[in-house]
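Worked example

This section walks through a single chain of length 265. The input is the sequence exactly as stored; nothing has been trimmed or padded.
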Amino acid sequence: MIGFIGGGNMAEALINGIRGQGLGAGEEIIVSEPNEERRRYLEQTYRVRTTQYNKEIASFCDIIILAVKPQNMEAVLGEIADVIDDTKTVVSIAAGITLSYLQARLKTTKIIRVMPNTPALIQEGMSVYSLCECFTGSEVNIVKSILMSIGRVIALPERHMDAVTAVSGSGPAFIALFIEAMIEAGDKLGLNRNDAAELAVQTVVGTAKLLDTGMSTENLRQMVTSPGGTTAAGLKVFEEKGLKPIVFEALLAAKNRAEELGKKA
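Given that input, the structure is written out below as tokens.
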């Protein structure tokens, strides 16, 4: 049985993915959520069982997905620690919460740390997982299948997780900001705002799909850019204004903040 502690957006994305891929029937999924209205929504939408008690999830489920905010993790672990043992697999999707932090509070070595991202809401997510070297059970493949139901999955050593948080965890917000800037610029250039939005969003979607074929970013730039042309003029401004250094500084700030959150946990 798969249990979720926390019934927020990411938990919902995983539940939707699990159900869509046929990995678990509704009665095999149970969610603990303090908000009664949210519990009713999850029950009615996904036909899953819900409870307000975190310990119920920990007691009856084989795979326990901790989908709570990092600042709530200490309290949640305090509630469930006495019913967790090596028969349980614990999966944390909370940013900044390290494997060592979880291992120090739970009596199991079967712990997986995951950084998913928001596109998981439409099964286009990017998830990265890390786990203790001593954990080699078949449960890893089950968790990997769950994550694959919401998009792509890769495994990396935990030392990379703060950089992962910066690139793919925070990345959707950075990309959304760039699209927002394109829309606003199009508006200022005389386009209807709705038209500018459609142009910007579809251009980003199409570009991403083109790069997903294996084409390099450099080759794509060369395809679009003619010497002395419009694209060259725009790229020159990005270069002069230091777009790449700005992007690096933004991701570095996000990575550093992830490290700070991990130290506070």
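What to look for: The first strand starts at residue 2 and ends at 5.
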